[in-house]
C-alpha cells in the first residue's frame, strides 16, 4: 500500500527520482561506466546494501518503493498518470505514450484528437541503435472509427508495443465517460476560437464528460489487433524512417529526417559558428545573436510559406529500460474543423497546403553515456532552438528552461513575446529583441507548452509546462 510519502514524492516534479533498486529488467547507467573487479566488488556490495534496504523498506512501508521508476510528461495530469500506470503494469515507453496520447484526445480537444496528425521519435539508449521516426502527418483514415491518430498509434503499437491494444485505449474511454477537470487553457481556447457551440460555456475546474467519444474509444479498444493492423496499408501506412543525428556543443541531437528537422539542425550549425560560451548566455548580446540567426534562417528558407504551426501537444516518456519516446500531435487549427462528429471527436482540417512544423526531439551527452539525456518536443524551429541553446550551451535546469519566457517567430521575421507570462522578459531583453524586430507583438494565448523528461546518471527529473496546465507523473 502506498503511503502519504509515496504519493507526495510521486506527484512532485521538483524531486529527482533515483533508481537504485534491483529488478528483473536490471539496467543502471553506471554499469556502462565500470568494469572488471572494481565493478564486481561494487556490484556485490551494492546488492547486499540494496537487499537489506529493500527488506527494511518493505517491512515498514510495503512494496511500492522497490518498483523501478519511469516518467511521463503531458499537458494533462490525468494523461501523465495513465502513462505511468501503464509503466507500472510492465508496459514500455511505447505503451505509455500510446495510452497518454489517447487520453489527450479526451482532455485537450483544442490541441489534439482522434483525427490529429503527429510524429514520433523513438530511441533506445541502452542499445544505442539508431533512432527511428514514425510520421502520421499525411492524409489517412479508413472509417470514422479509425481516423489518423488511431492508425498512427496502431502502427506504433504493431512495431514496438508490448501490452495488448485494448488495455492502452480503455483508460481514455473510461475518462471520457466519467469526465475530467476542465483546464484554464481549454476555457481560453474555447473563448479565442468562439467554440462555445462545441461544448457549451465552460469554467475551469468543472467536470466535462464526452459520452459519444467514450463509446467510440470503447469500439476502438474492442477492435482486434489483427483487424486493426489490416488497415495499415497504402495511404494509411505511416512513414517509418531513421532519424537525423548531429552533434551540437557536445550533445547528440536526434530529430525527424523531415524538412523541419533539417531546418533545426541548419539553425543550430549557424549558432555553433558564433562560438559562444556559457558565460556569454547571460548577456543580452546572446539573445540578439540567437534571435537574429533564427530570423535569418526563417526568412531565407521562407518558413512561413512552407509550414503551418497549428496546435501542439506532446508526450515525453522514459522507462526503466532506457527507451525514450517523444510523441507530438496536433491539428491545423484549434478545435480542428470546428465541429464534433456523431462519434464524439473533432475532425481536422483537410486539404492542408503546408507541412507541419512540429518537432519531437531527443538530446544525449555525446561523450558520457551516463550524462544528461533529455526527451521533449517543440512546435516550431524557433521554440526548439531556444530550448536547446538554454539546455545545452547555458546548461540550465530543465524546469527553469521550460518555465522561462519565450519569443516566437512570426511571418516576415517579426517577433511576438508571451506578454502575460511570469517570469517575463526584462525590459533590457525586450529592447534587445526590438533591434532584431522593431515590431514586437504579444503572442496569442494559450501559449504552446513543452513537456520534458530528463535523466542524468540514474536520476530522473520531469516537468510539464505550466502553459499547458499539466503535471508530469513519476514513480
UniProtKB/TrEMBL annotation:
Keyword Zinc: no
Keywords on record: Membrane, Transmembrane, Transmembrane helix
Pfam family, one: G_glu_transpept
GO CC aspect terms: plasma membrane
Keyword Transmembrane helix: yes
Transmembrane segments: 39-61
Biological process (GO), any one: glutathione catabolic process
GO molecular function annotation: glutathione hydrolase activity
Protein name from the UniProt record: Uncharacterized protein
Organism of derivation: Acanthoscelides obtectus
Amino acid at each position: 500500500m502506498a503511503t502519504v510519502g509515496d504519493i507526495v514524492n510521486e506527484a512532485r516534479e521538483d524531486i529527482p527520482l533515483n533508481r537504485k533498486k534491483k529488478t528483473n529488467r536490471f539496467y543502471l547507467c553506471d554499469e556502462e561506466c565500470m568494469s572488471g573487479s572494481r565493478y564486481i566488488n561494487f556490484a556485490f556490495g551494492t546488492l547486499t546494501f540494496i537487499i537489506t534496504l529493500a527488506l527494511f523498506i518493505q517491512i515498514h512501508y510495503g512494496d511500492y518503493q522497490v518498483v523501478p521508476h519511469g516518467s511521463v510528461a503531458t499537458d494533462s495530469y490525468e494523461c501523465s498518470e495513465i502513462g505511468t500506470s501503464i509503466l507500472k503494469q510492465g508496459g514500455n515507453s511505447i505503451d505509455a505514450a500510446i495510452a497518454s496520447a489517447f487520453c489527450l484526445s479526451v482532455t485537450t480537444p483544442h490541441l489534439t484528437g482522434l483525427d490529429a496528425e503527429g510524429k514520433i521519435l523513438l530511441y533506445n539508449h541502452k542499445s544505442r541503435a539508431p533512432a527511428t521516426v514514425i510520421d502520421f502527418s499525411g492524409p489517412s483514415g479508413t472509417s470514422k472509427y479509425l481516423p489518423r491518430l488511431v492508425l498512427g498509434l496502431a502502427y506504433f503499437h504493431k512495431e514496438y508495443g508490448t501490452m495488448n491494444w485494448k488495455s492502452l485505449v480503455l483508460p481514455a474511454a473510461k475518462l471520457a465517460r466519467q469526465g475530467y477537470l476542465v483546464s484554464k487553457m481549454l476555457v481560453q481556447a474555447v473563448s479565442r476560437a468562439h467554440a462555445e457551440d462545441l461544448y457549451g460555456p465552460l469554467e475551469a475546474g468543472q467536470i466535462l464528460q464526452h459520452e459519444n467519444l467514450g463509446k467510440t474509444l470503447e469500439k476502438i479498444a474492442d477492435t482486434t489487433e489483427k483487424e486493426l493492423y489490416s488497415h495499415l496499408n497504402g495511404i494509411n501506412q505511416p512513414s517509418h524512417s531513421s532519424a537525423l543525428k548531429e552533434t551540437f556543443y557536445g550533445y547528440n541531437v536526434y530529430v525527424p529526417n523531415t524538412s523541419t528537422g533539417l531546418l533545426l539542425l541548419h539553425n543550430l550549425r549557424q549558432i555553433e559558428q558564433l562560438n559562444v560560451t556559457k558565460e556569454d548566455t547571460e548577456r543580452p548580446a546572446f539573445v540578439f545573436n540567437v534571435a537574429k540567426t533564427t530570423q535569418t534562417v526563417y526568412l531565407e528558407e521562407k518558413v512561413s510559406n512552407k509550414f503551418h504551426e497549428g496546435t501542439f501537444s506532446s508526450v515525453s516518456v522514459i522507462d526503466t529500460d532506457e527507451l525514450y519516446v517523444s510523441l507530438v500531435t496536433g491539428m491545423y487549427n484549434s478545435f480542428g474543423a470546428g465541429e464534433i462528429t456523431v462519434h464524439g471527436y473533432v475532425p481536422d482540417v483537410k486539404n492542408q497546403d503546408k507541412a507541419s512544423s512540429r518537432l519531437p526531439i531527443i538530446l544525449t551527452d555525446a561523450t558520457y553515456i551516463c550524462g544528461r539525456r533529455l526527451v521533449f518536443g517543440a512546435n516550431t524551429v524557433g521554440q526548439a532552438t531556444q530550448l536547446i541553446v538554454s539546455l545545452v550551451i547555458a546548461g540550465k535546469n530543465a524546469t527553469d528552461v521550460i518555465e522561462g519566457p519565450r519569443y516566437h517567430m512570426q511571418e516576415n521575421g517579426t517577433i511576438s513575446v508571451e506578454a502575460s507570462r511570469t517570469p517575463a522578459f526584462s525590459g533590457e531583453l525586450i529592447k534587445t529583441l526590438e533591434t532584431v524586430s522593431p515590431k514586437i507583438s504579444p503572442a496569442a494565448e494559450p501559449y504552446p507548452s513543452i513537456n520534458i523528461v530528463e535523466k542524468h546518471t540514474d536520476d530522473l527529473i520531469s516537468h510539464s509546462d505550466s502553459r499547458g496546465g499539466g503535471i508530469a507523473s513519476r514513480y
